[in-house]
């Protein structure tokens, strides 16, 4: 099965699981039902990442999985989901903040050992 067919099967199954018609998806995403039909039948060679993002959100699918099914390269991550959530909570940090966090962690870890 090629990427187009794999993606089409994946999206069609997700749409049906969500209980949506092609017209309903069109109404919610703005993607024409004709394009959606072609996408589900594997006729679209390079689907738009923007459209794939809209569909992944509507169907509640992981965007990276949808992109991978479409044949787009997915960067590997060196962090677990838990670590990614942690980093998202912290947000951007300056070098000064990073150093302060490291110092605090070192302090906390030495207290635990005592």
Write structural notes for this entry.
The protein is an all-alpha fold and 114 residues long. The chain has 2 domains: 3-69, lambda repressor-like DNA-binding domains (434 Repressor (Amino-terminal Domain)), CATH 1.10.260.40; 81-113. The chain is built from 7 helices and no strands.
Could you name the key traits of this structure?
mainly alpha, 434 Repressor (Amino-terminal Domain), 68% helix, 2 domains, 0% strand
Helix-strand blueprint:
Blueprint lengths: L2 H15 L4 H8 L3 H8 L8 H11 L3 H7 L11 H10 L4 H19 L1
CATH fold group of the largest domain: 434 Repressor (Amino-terminal Domain)
Beta-strand proportion? under 5%
Assign a percent range to the helix content.
Answer: 55-70%
How many strand segments?
Answer: 0
Main sheet summary: none
First-residue to last-residue Cα separation = 59 Å
CATH superfamily annotation of the largest domain: lambda repressor-like DNA-binding domains
Shape: elongated
Q: What is the C-level CATH assignment of the largest domain?
A: Mainly Alpha
Query: Domains counted in the coordinates: how many?
Result: 2
The CATH architecture assignment of the largest domain turns out to be Orthogonal Bundle
**Low-pLDDT residue spans:** none
Overall structural class, as computed from helix and strand content, comes to: mainly alpha
Number of helices: 7
- SSE topology string: HHHHHHH
Radius of gyration: 21 Å
- Would you tell me the overall average pLDDT? 90
At a glance:
The protein has about 110 residues and is mainly alpha-helical. It contains seven helices and no strands. The relative contact order is 0.11.
